[in-house]
Design brief:
CATH architecture: Roll
CATH class: Alpha Beta
Helix content: 10-25%
Number of strands: 5
Shape: elongated
């Protein structure tokens, strides 16, 4: 995950504004809040590929690169890296747009694995066209 890349990898899957209620005791945005945004973005992207319900199975290579501040616009991007029989592996990146500035920069990156599930929560084949 190259933090010096020119721009986000993948498609925009979620965008929101970091608010004061999302801060940790140091006044920065809580890392768990960023992770939850990335999980939502991963779920949305994977559900579109699987054409149905998915569940997060694993998160790896999570890296917090820079702090997020109150008022930052947080943008989560998702890129499909692999499609297995029942699973989808995505690269997720969180980028921010700082208030009053036109530049954006990557703040967090991770790999998410989601599994396509049926109505009972059991794994099912991914229905994506390959």
């Amino acid at each position: 995950m190259d933090e010096l890349q020119a721009g986000p990898r993948g498609d925009l899957a979620l965008r929101t504004v970091a608010m004061p209620a999302d801060t940790n005791p140091a006044g920065d945005i809580f890392g768990g809040w960023i992770m939850s945004l990335m999980d939502l973005a991963a779920g949305t992207a994977a559900a579109a590929v699987a054409k149905g319900r998915v569940a997060t199975a694993a998160v790896s290579n999570l890296a917090f690169l820079q702090p997020v501040k109150v008022g930052d616009v947080v943008c989560c991007y998702a890129a499909v890296d692999r499609i297995g029989r029942t699973s989808i592996t995505l690269g997720l990146e969180a980028w921010v747009l700082r208030q009053g500035r036109n530049e954006r920069f990557k703040v967090t990156a991770a790999e998410f694995v989601l599994v396509a599930v049926d109505a009972t929560g059991r794994p099912r084949p991914v229905l994506a066209e390959r």
